[in-house]
Amino acid sequence: MALPSVSIVIPAYNEEDTIRACVLAALHQTVAATEIIVVDNKSTDGTAGVVHALQATYPDAPIHYLRQDTTQGLIPTRNFGLDHATGDVIGRIDADSVLEPTWVEAVQAVFADPEVSASTGPVIYYDMPLRRFGHKADDALRRALVKVTKESHLLFGSNMAIRASAWRQIRHDACMDAADELHEDIDLSLHLHEHGLRIAYSSDMVTGMSARRLDDSPREFYNYVMRFERTYDRHNVRSLTLRAPMAIFLSAYPALKVMREVTQLQR
C-alpha cells in the first residue's frame, strides 16, 4: 500500500523573521512534502517578500503562497490553508516551527495506519539552553500525558497533522472563536474525539519551535494557559485528566521563565 502524501500548511502573520527558516526546514526533508503552503493573513511586514524570494530561489519546489485577507485570525487562516491542501495528510505548523529533516517521513509512518486520523509529537525549543535534553524531557512528558489521557489525546498546534478526510468530517464543527479565547488545537482535538476519530502520538514526529511565549508577562502567560479552561468549558469537558496539561504549564512556568531570561541575558 502506498504511503500517504503530505501537505504542510503554515499560517503566517508578520513573520518575516521566522518564515524563511520554517519553509526551508519543510523543504529539506528526507521525504519531500507534496506541497508547502504559506497562508499570509494580512501581514504588513516583509513576510510575502521572503516567501516569494524562496519561490524564486527554489523554482521547482512546491512552495505555494496564499493570502487570506477576509478575516484576521489564526483559525480562519488555518482553515483556509487546510481547505486548499491537496495531500492525503495535512501537516499544520507555526511560522516559527523548524521541522526536523525526518518529519514528513515520520508523519507518513504514523498515517500508514488507516485508523489514525490525526497525530502530534514533541518539540525542541531552539532558543532555550540544553535543547536536546529539553527535547527528551518534552517527549517524556507528552508520552506520560498520553498514558494519563488514555484515548483522549490532544494535538499540539505547532506540530500536528490531520488526515484530509478527518478534516472534512469536522470542518464545519470546529469553533471559529471570533473572540479569540480558545486553544484552537485543543478545540480540534475535542471535535475529533466527538466524532470517534483517533489521535496518535509519535516521538519521531519532531519539530523545533521558539520559546518566545515565555517572553509574555506572568499575567499574559496565565491568560494564555487559561485558554485550556475556556476550551474545555466550551465543550463541557469535566475530565480532570484532560485538564492535566493546563496544570503542568502553570506549574512549569516559573522555572522556564528563569531559564528563558538567562538565555536572553547571554545574547
TrEMBL record:
List the InterPro entries hit by this protein, alphabetically. Glyco_trans_2-like, Glycosyltransf_2, Nucleotide-diphossugar_trans
Which region is the signal sequence?
Answer: none
> Which SUPFAM superfamilies does the UniProt record give?
Nucleotide-diphospho-sugar transferases (SSF53448)
- Point out the coiled-coil segments of this chain: none
Q: Where is the Glycosyltransferase 2-like domain?
A: 7-166
Which Pfam families does this entry report, sorted A to Z? Glycos_transf_2
- PANTHER family, A to Z: GLYCOSYLTRANSFERASE, GLYCOSYLTRANSFERASE 2-LIKE DOMAIN-CONTAINING PROTEIN
Q: What is this protein called?
A: Glycosyltransferase involved in cell wall biosynthesis
The species this protein belongs to is: Antiquaquibacter oligotrophicus
